[in-house]
Amino acid sequence: MDRDLLVAAHRLIAARVRPVYAMNDTQPVSRTLLLERGSCSQRLAVLEAVGRACGIAGRVRGLLVSGRFWHPRFPRLRALVPRQVVLAWPEFLLDGEWVTVSELYGDLSTLREEEAFTNIGGETLFDAVARTAVDWDGVTASSCDLSGQVLADLGYFSSRDALFRAHGQTLCSPVRITADLVMGRRSA
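The chain above was modelled as a monomer; its predicted structure follows.
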């Protein structure tokens, strides 16, 4: 039942919160909802907030991902893409087990045969979890094995705020604010 609620929330967020290239990973969920737009990370934060509001325990896994992962999305701006990006990947406690957001729509082995996530066009990782196995560990040999992009596993944190307090956001404040002004309204 909790899984169904999270899947419904995921679909609603995907339909109502437009994906953009915003940079502030700690933006309050209320602001993302007010703006009706958010980055992949900001939309995941909304899903986490829905889970918490409904009494579903959550945590995030911190991953340090290679900036090369975003090169297909920004072919002309590669020089401006950071070398590494801190990523908060949510998990939810469902039926006594931690379930990664990658497995909300089914286990990775079931989803692995679907078309791979290419990181180009309008689809974000937030959207991709609804149709393909987003696998950060390389355990499924899936069409969306992203394990080669992971530079470091930063461990588990009680919240995305705790992760970003411990490891900071990818961009320093002045650069993040400037980038947000330029990219924060640009559709993904």
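The beta strands are 18-19, 37-38, 58-66, 84-94, 97-100, 150-157.
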